[in-house]
Specification:
The protein is of the alpha/beta class and 324 residues long. The chain folds into two domains: 4-94 and 294-323, Rossmann fold, CATH 3.40.50; 97-284, 3-Layer(aba) Sandwich (Rossmann fold), CATH 3.40.50.720. The protein contains eleven helices and twelve strands. It has a seven-stranded parallel beta sheet with strand order 8-7-6-9-10-11-12, sandwiched between helices. It has a five-stranded parallel beta sheet with strand order 2-1-3-4-5. Strand 10 (220-224), helix 9 and strand 11 form a beta-alpha-beta unit. Helix 1 (14-21) packs parallel to helix 11 (293-323) and helix 4 packs across helix 6 (149-158). The chain is elongated and about 65 Å long.
Amino acid sequence: MIKKILILEKGHPFIKYKLQKKGFICDENYKHSINKIDISMYDGIILRSRLKIDKQFIDRAENLKFIARIGSGTENIDKNNAFQKGITLISSPEGNKDAVAEHAIGMLLCVKNHIIRSYQEIKEGIWNRERNRGTEIMGKTIGIIGYGNTGKAFAKKLSGFDSRILCYDILPKIGDIYAKQVDMNTIFRKSDIISLHVPYTERTKGMINSNFINKFYKSFYFINTSRGGCVITHHLVKALNTGKVYGACLDVLEYENFSFENIFNHHKLPKSFFYLIDSNKVILTPHIAGWTKESKYKMEKKIVEKIIILNNKFKNYKTKNFNQ
């Protein structure tokens, strides 16, 4: 059974209130580094991205039954060691899927219709309608790579744009009424717009590279609201320069670290980053696609629900074995 939980990052008061109401003991530690936290007494931890949960931490967690990451990604957790220790990983991608989908559409509309550029020009006294003539989403083919929570939400919200929506995923038979599941060759042949919705893994690391981009039959618009490390930035910049990629909407960047902190404070940034900043073909946002007031509450609520469900499973398993 789960009895004692350590909350490592400050969130909505709902988390502690609801868990305590269900009988869990909840402690909080928002300041200490990973090496200064005594984890041995806890059955579970809740965090976002402040700390990296490595092998040393997991080895010290003698009683740990779960690690709950508020959000969709778990790249700040040593998953292999957690699995070997029988620790359950919990995340809450359901909580921010709609926020990510709305943000992706907003960025796409901005880049296709030159909204930010024309606004900046107007502030400088420039009124140029023809230069800022846009293109419509209607009638285009949109390829969604990764058809999980956010991919499905993106397709659903696009359904009113009268476009053709295709999806690719490593799992079979997950297409739905909003997107037709196809192979990657079809994505390469048909797509006018590509939106990336994959987790960051060894398989997806650097998957958007020159070789991948050059497989597309047509030039296309590119959206990334998943993880920056899935894209080799200087390859994308090359494609923007040649016109193979018409425009890019990037909420995440290759140069972010696992905690998504201010990249200007932690990196010697390459020329390709400054190209992205200066280019009128690119829309950049600071990893905020899933960062709404509503999603913050929904992600945390989902984490609490999953912890309660997990504890009920432990209870049922114990009762079943006892009765046997």
